[in-house]
Amino acid sequence: MEDSATAGKLRDYLKRATTELERSRRRVRELEERDREPVAIIGMGCRYPGGVRTPEDLWRIVHEGIDVVTEFPTDRGWDVEAIYDPEPGAPGKSYVRHGGFLHDAAECDPAFFGISPKDAPGTDPQQRLLLEVAWEAFERAGIDPHTVKGTPTGVFVGLMHHDYIGGTISGSIVSGRIAYTLGLEGPAVTMDTACSSSLVALHSAIQSLRKGECSLALAGGAAVMASPEMFIEFSERRALSPDGRCHSFSDDAAGAAWAEGAGMLLVERLSDALRSGHEVLAVVRGSAVNQDGASNGLTAPSGPAQIRVIQQALADARLAPHHIDAVEAHGTGTTLGDPIEAQAVIAAYGQDRPENRPIWLGSIKSNMGHPQAAAGVGAVIKMVMAMRHGTLPRTLHVEKPSTAVDWTAGDIRLLTEPQSWDTPDGRPRRAGVSSFGISGTNAHTILEEAPPADTDRPAPERAALPVVPWVLSGKGSDAVQRQAERLLTAAGDLDPYDVGYSLATTRALFTHRAAVTGRDRHELLASLRAVADGSQAAVVVPEPGRLGILFSGQGSQRPGMGRTLHAAFPVFAAAFDEICAAFDAHLDRPLREVMFEEPADPAASPLHQTVYTQAALFTFETALYRLLEHWGIRPDLLAGHSIGEVVAAHVAGVLELKDAVVLVAARGRLMQELPAGGTMVSLLASEAEVTPLLTDGVDIAAVNGPRAVVVSGDEEAVLAVAAKVEKTTRLKVSHAFHSRRMDPMLDAFREVLAGLTFHEPALPVVSNVTGRMADELTSPEYWVRHVREAVRFHDGVTALAAEGATRFLEVGPDAVLTTMAQGVVPDVIGTQRRDRDEDAALIDAVCRLHLTGTGPDWTVVFAGGRKADLPTYPFRRDRHWEDAPILQAERSAAARAGGDAADPFWELVREQDVTAVAATLGVADETSVAAVVPALAAWHEQRQANATADGWRYRVTWEPLAPAATPALGGHWLAVVPACDDPWTSAVLTGLTDRGLHVDSVTAPEAAGRTELAGLLAGRGGVDGVLSLLAPVTELTSTAALVQALGDTEITAPLWCVTRDAVSHGPAAEVSGFAQAQVWGLGRVAALEHPDRWGGLIDLPAEIGPQTVARLAALLGDAGGEDQVVIRESGAYGRRLEHAPARAGAPWKPSGT
Predict the structure, then answer these.
(1) Can you give the pLDDT at residue 685?
(2) Could you tell me if 712 and 739 lie in one domain?
(3) Paired strand residues for 426
(4) What is the DSSP letter of 965?
(5) What span, in angstroms and rounded, lies between the C-alpha atoms of 640 and 812?
(6) Catalytic residues
(7) Residue 538 falls inside a structural domain
(8) In a shared domain, residues 94 and 240
């Protein structure tokens, strides 16, 4: 026995040990898997050269093979002429004047991110860009950015430039401000490994996700060159491509080319993304970071290190080299770096590959240049889009592959042409992405196509929603309007239900809101246009407050009520049917049949018999309340009018459904059994005025407002009282409710109430009897008094307001109480109106409630909705830029001043100490120095003497203007046009009309004088502005006469005079209409003499394009304080007067006229 017991214990122990060992092994496997778990890219946002503002824009330029390199920006205070020297290596000069620039880097929406107007110009544009693309990454992932506040979301940012005047020198602030602004509580790290920064940031984000430090992570980088120092420094090294383009892996590669950009990825563990239902754009299978170490030079690339980092990334991804289809290379176009990188790719990926499966090689830098700290994330976005489109884009500027690379050493192909991206056996597409920092920090990432959607899983069932709401919001009414404009262009091909779901659940809610509804796309888009053109203005959400629900009483019923809602909304139908079934045991006819019946004569409907009326109102209102409750609309306070208070008591939990039905049925039946006769009349008078008029047989039945009293009782007596009031309305009722004519039913009703069970209310209810918060709802006697005494509705809603209610929602078949309660609280909304379809009225009411700040749970309203790709938030485009970049400002100032006058060198020159000057310069031949010292001394003396005069020099420049922060608003304009048939003039007028402006034309006869023009303009006032198109084809005197004639006719609308190709806005611009310069001179004088009716001067190009007209319409809608503007297809430019000190060198050569 003892041996048996011992064996049993041993078996039990071994079982426990085996189980524990298996559990431990499983846990180890889980930990190992977690350390290597793929990471999903679920959102992307970006800004890159060429006007790229979205990943789709980026795909367009690489797919179409577009080169987006441009000249230096003109709006950053760079002295472009001073720094350019075509000779490579010249100190302080750049032999390059092209690059990939964000020409709108100065434009931002600082207020959106809580940056004050005072701080905005001093905030680094890289910071501002990263805030925008981070926000967009969340929106594009279908995540409301407000919902991540307080979550362990990480921020990993690559940044390398710190040359912005007033900008934050510490890069840590950049990631910290993103976390601060969005309320993110995971790691926030800024890293600078130069050109590999953003890919290193992605690697760090992946590691943090795998370790559980964060649940989501933002990873990206930005580069904006506030000064031209990168060009100057690398020009001095002769390391730049002369044409400003990266000739990646080409035999004619001659150096790098600088670009700018900002990109952000939102990443999440793949298992979490699939579980959360987030769309997976692509998967990061593995990544690695290493260093060149003690290689052949600090800044020289290391082939062995690049091979190692690729191998480490493959190991992290648990993939073999032949599993990778393509490499998005660093590929900067240098004669040293590109061959090293190509050989490393050949060694790591190009060996032992399957037949006809070469490794493809390309680089996005050939399209835009090298965006430095934003390069890696841009490359990732490119490859994610390539995977999704199944195409490998071509690399530009490769006339001939580099002969410094042995392309036969492995199976590798340059992407000189686009390639269809097919994979064997349907395996996922995969690509490697490389970024190598100038200091030797290398990064490599393995991307994989997103896993296929689970087609076996049934799509979630959509909620019944016959009328679809679209809700918009923004930080300002202009933002709502711009969002509507954007949505109009995007929503045409999208499912309206999914658009509504995405607008309501994946976008943040702000203070300014608008909502539109429609049964189909056509109706929705038509309503959306009203928001876009400003005819339906956005509303401002009021201060927070409590919601009171009001339940309607008798008089609101209508035949057919509930039928449409029953057919449209299953939740309503289920509650409705349940209540009807409960009532059918107490009524002679099925209640549903009575309610849905619509006789030819509505007045003859049995619904108007109080036995059915009360049951129908209770049924309809309770079912509608259950639907609203299902949608997440939950009141803070309740009230009702007469029978409506019974509904309020039921939904507050005072009576369970069975008892509530007994009460309502008995109440209606007993009232119906009362003798016919009696009447009710509504009086336009106060209670104080009515009370002295009361006689026997007349009672006050209701006090609905300060001057809205209903009297009830014996017909003759009631009518006698009514005759003493100026304005009265006789009510169509079956009985004289809330009067002494109810007395015969009270005892029987009391008996019914005695058999019911009452509970304390779960929600506060206002009493009709007292007009105060109810405290007797559990007393049967209270409900007896409720039948007999007056309905103190006005006191009740006033009490609700005193309890903090700021908005009322009426639940009933018509908006009766809505009218009565107007003025008590700011917002009173009826869920139904008898003159509207039930479903449309209900959805409209829900939207109106949303506009007050108390909306539904949209995830329930749009159950089963799918994320639609909608436009992201329409940030304002206000210009904020500190004009003088740090280093260039110092260099330019020194050059203009000719150096420090107190410098010892200039003391030696002034003293003409040849020996000392030669020694200072390190020149042995004093004779050559002696020949120039006198001239140098004279030059410096004259320079110093002219220093004051130099401070008086100014020049006219043209500053690029930011796009209008608000949409171009339509307006009524009067155009004064020449008598001749001018196609250019017609193109301008047609374009403005197409842009929503209403334009009336007045034709001015050739050589018309002041008096004649005044006669033509008489009675043409009342417009928003006057547009003169006379200048291109008439003499100056016509424009002068127009200015005078407008004054004679007292037309004070601002006058804008338009010229055609008359103004040069840049040194390279040539003009053909220079004779019209006279109009600009006249206009400047008119602006001084008639500032009250002067608009400005506009110069348009000789050829009118779509962007020109759009900018003109925007300018006329809101000039933003500008009054001298040049508009071209490339942009709009405002006239500026800036300081222009004398420049040493060649004498001044006049140009122009």
Answers:
(1) 96
(2) no
(3) none
(4) S
(5) 10
(6) 195, 330, 370
(7) no
(8) yes
CA torsion 238→240→243→246, rounded to 10°? 150
Is 1103 found in the same domain as 990?
A: yes
Q: Do the domain assignments include residue 462? A: no
Please give the single-letter amino acid code of residue 879: R
27: confidence class by pLDDT, cuts 50, 70, 90: low
Residue 716 predicted with pLDDT over 90: yes
Tokens of 1042: 């127009």
What is 889-928 written as a DSSP string? HHHHHHHHHTS-TT-HHHHHHHTT-HHHHHHHHT-S-HHH
Query: Using one digit for the tens of pLDDT, what is the confidence trace for 433-468?
Result: 999 999 899 999 999 999 998 766 777 889 989 999
Average pLDDT over residues 321-338: 96
Alpha carbon 464 to chain centroid, angstroms? 28
How far is residue 222 from each of residues 198, 232, 458, 630, measured CA to CA in Å?
A: 8, 21, 42, 45
* Cα 397–Cα 400–Cα 404 angle in degrees, nearest 5: 110
AA identity, residue 86: P
CB 551 within 8 A of CB 641: yes
Cα–Cα distance, 48 to 58 (Å, whole number): 7
- Dihedrals φ, ψ of 934, to 5°? -60, -45
Do 727 and 588 lie in one domain? The reply is no
Quote the CA–CA distance of 97 and 53 in Å, as a whole number: 24
Ranking 657-671, 937-951, 1139-1153 by mean pLDDT, the lowest is 1139-1153
Question: Measured between alpha carbons, how far apart are the two ends of the chain, in Å?
Answer: 122
What are the C-alpha distances in Å from 711 to residues 720, 769, 815? Answer: 11, 16, 22
Using one digit for the tens of pLDDT, what is the confidence trace for 502-533?
999 999 999 999 999 999 999 999 999 999 99
| Residue whose token pair is 């950015």 | 145
* Distance between CA atoms of residues 803 and 765, nearest Å: 11
Here the tokens at position 1031 are 């200048």
Position 193 scores a pLDDT of 96
Whole-angstrom distance, CA of residue 1045 vs CA of residue 594: 74
- Tell me the mean pLDDT in the region 549-556: 96
Residues 257 and 132 in one domain: yes
Supply the pLDDT for residue 508: 96
pLDDT of residue 886: 36
Amino acid at 1024: D
Q: What is the rounded distance in angstroms from the CA atom of residue 830 to the CA atom of residue 820?
A: 11
* Predicted local confidence at residue 925, as pLDDT: 82
Poorest-confidence range of 29-33, 874-878, 924-928? Answer: 29-33
Could you give the dihedral angle defined by the CA atoms of residues 754, 756, 757 and 762, in that order, rounded to the nearest 10 degrees? -110
242: closest CA among 12, 88, 398? Answer: 88
Which pLDDT does position 899 carry in this prediction?
A: 47
Residue corresponding to tokens 């290190």: 305
| Cα-based angle 537, 541, 542 (whole degrees, multiple of 5) | 125
Query: CA-CA distance, 1048 to 1055, in Å (whole number)?
Result: 14
| Half-sphere exposure in the Cβ direction for 869 (13 Å, CA) | 12
Over the stretch 746-802, which tens digit does the pLDDT of each residue have?
Answer: 999 999 999 999 999 999 999 999 999 999 999 999 999 999 999 999 999 999 999
CA distance linking residue 589 with residue 609, whole number of Å: 12
Range of the domain at 510: 468-533
pLDDT of residue 904: 78
Of 308, 245, 287, 255, nearest in space to 440 by CA: 308
Tell me the CA distances in angstroms from 820 to 326, 739, 824, one per residue in order: 71, 21, 9
Orientation of helix 610-630 relative to helix 570-584, angle to 10°:
150
The reply to whether 971 and 839 lie within a common domain is: no
**What would the two tokens of residue 367 be?**
């399209």
Six-digit token pair at 329? 């290379």
Number of domains in the chain: 6
Give residue 219's pLDDT band: very low, low, confident or very high (50, 70, 90): very high
Say what the pLDDT of residue 637 is.
98
Coil/strand/helix, residue 652: coil
Count the neighbouring beta carbons within 10 Å of the beta carbon of residue 14.
10
